[in-house]
Amino acid sequence: MEYLVTAEEMKRYDRVTIGEIGIPALVLMERAALAVMEEIAAVCRGGRVLILAGVGNNGGDGLALARLLAERGYQVEVAVCGDPGRATEEWKTQEAVLRNYPVRIMQEGMSAGRKTLGKEYTILVDALFGVGLSREVSGKYREQIEQFNGLSGYKIAVDVPSGIHSDTGEVCGCAVRADLTVCLGMAKRGLYFYPGCEYCGIVKVKEIGIGEAAFRGVLPQMYRYTERIEDLLPVRKGNGNKGTFGKVLLAAGSRNMAGAAVLAARGCYKSGAGMVKVATPECNRIVLQAAVPEALLWTYGEENEDMLQESALERTADWADVLAVGPGLGTGEGAYRLLKLLLERSDQPIVIDADGLNLLAEYPDLKDLAASRAACGRRVVLTPHLGELSRLTGESLHEIRSHPVDSVMGLARRLHCVVAGKDARTVICQEGRQICLNTTGNSGMATAGSGDVLAGMIAGLLAQGMEPFEAAAVGVYWHGLAGDAAAASYGEYGVTAYGITEHIICGRAEK
To answer: CA 144, 145, 146, 149 torsion: positive or negative?
Structure first.
């Protein structure tokens, strides 16, 4: 896995590296410049380079880079934006050294070289701001970024594209659009959230000497998976049987919504569950038997009183190792009573998705029941998309998009459960745990039924003995890999939920 750090975390690890471990700041700056130099050399062995440098240590990295490039024969110009009198001491040291090299330094930024800026550059380097930018970019800084974006050439951002909030990925008014971002030391969160990730181009994280020794027991609070999926899945016993790999009761489907039950059941089986029993209305029997012949069925009539064959439902629940409720279930009285019964009278881990979440949002007693059971040790996983998350939290979509981590973690704390907040970047949270951010997947997965597949996959992993947080995090990651594999086969325009289930294969695609 790869840690994703906030600006505050990165600054802390930087201070520890310098102050306690004893690596001088100027050494770190040289390593940063060398890391960017390596990437430039991979693009071209010479040419004309423009470096836009601020007066902080990110700008100091840019000045050190200018010297290294000049030593290797590049034609280098540096446009300084900011008051050198307020520069860091490391910046001042780098600037004094750079004056001994054949590098043109424009102290008034790119405006000072307006007559020559029309010439084509091979490489343009953004070293204006580093981590920690939290206010809107305006005035001369905005002008410099807009002018930088308007120039032709291969654009490289040092650490974070200037104008991107390094924690949230928010665009602070305007931002550099890079072809490549060379992230220094550790990956920054904002490079992986939207819209920031769209400004980064290719992201390469480069080691410069700030590593795990700087943690001092304080780990970053977010990570993402980068491993092969095979390395994350439960070990399958060679002498196992269908019972060994777990039994899932899936309460899903309603009239004209058989597909949701089909997709969730396929997700269960394709992720390794040994047996899946679908609780669904009788009208869905033929569809399910044709589409998922492996599945067992427990069917009921569509009238509310028929659904309440409580003793039969309890026996069916007792048979299962894991429960999954919600895909295509509907939100009528019968669905309400079914979910209430499963929450009250069973103790197995339960995945609540889709209409199950809508029921929690609509009926406060169900939400309170789920929270109280989870507080007493019941393992509960919720998988809301943004609309469902809004209904569950009372926050607007704008508020959630502005702080998705806070919204998902807040719900996880209030309901004492695991929450996978689904979006282009899914956030998986549980109180007391590090946050997992998923970066696999693509726009083709924004298609009906994709979430049903994911709910089934998480239930399938739970049935094989994974803990709820890991099942949710690995399930989301694997689901994204399957979506990427489907996009490779069909193109993003052609991805369907059923196509995703066809690509739930170990090692087929990784990101």
So the answer is: positive
Q: What is the CATH classification number for the domain harbouring 54?
A: 3.40.50.10260
Q: Which token pair is 128?
A: 């204006």
Q: Let me know if residue 233 belongs to a domain.
A: no
How many other C-beta atoms lie within 10 A of the C-beta of residue 394?
A: 8
Listed in sequence order, the residues at least 6 apart from 460 whose beta carbon sits closer than 8 Å to its beta carbon are 246, 248, 267, 268, 269, 270, 271, 272, 273, 276, 475
Q: Strands 322-325 and 350-352, how do they pair? A: parallel
Domain with residue 252: its CATH number is 3.40.1190.20
**Site of tokens 């951010």:** 437
Number of folded domains that form the chain: 2
Cα–Cα distance for residue pair 357/334, rounded to 1 Å: 15
d(CA 7, CA 179): 22
> Do residue 182 and residue 250 come from a single domain?
no
Structure tokens at 491: 């193109």
Mean pLDDT value of segment 473-485: 98
Cβ atoms of 427 and 210 within 8 Å: the answer is: no
Q: Could you tell me if 266 and 211 lie in one domain?
A: no
| Residue 115's pLDDT band (cuts 50, 70, 90) | low
CB 395 within 8 A of CB 407: yes
User: Above 50 in pLDDT, residue 259?
Assistant: yes
| 291-320 pLDDT per residue, tens | 999 999 999 886 544 555 777 888 889 999
Indicate whether 400 and 254 sit together in one domain.
yes
What is residue 508's predicted lDDT score, i.e. its pLDDT? 38
CB 195 within 8 A of CB 423: no
pLDDT value for 357: 98
Strands 180-184 and 154-158: parallel
pLDDT at residue number 507: 45
Q: Please count the other Cβ atoms lying within 10 Å of the Cβ belonging to residue 228.
A: 12
**CA contacts within 13 A on the Cβ side of 465:** 9
Range of the domain at 168: 2-224
**Tell me: the pLDDT tens digits for 377-386?**
999 999 999 9
User: Would you say residue 258 lies in a domain?
Assistant: yes
156-177 exposure pattern, b = at least 16 Cβ within 10 A, e = fewer: bbbbbbbbbbbbbbbbbebbbb
Give me the pLDDT at residue 510, please.
40
Instruction: Indicate whether 358 and 438 sit together in one domain.
Output: yes
Quick one: 32 and 78 in the same domain? yes
Q: Are residues 402 and 299 in the same domain?
A: yes
pLDDT tens-digit readout, 339-396? 999 999 999 999 999 999 999 999 999 999 999 999 999 999 999 999 999 999 999 9
For residue 250, the 8-state DSSP code is E
Q: What is the reported pTM?
A: 0.93
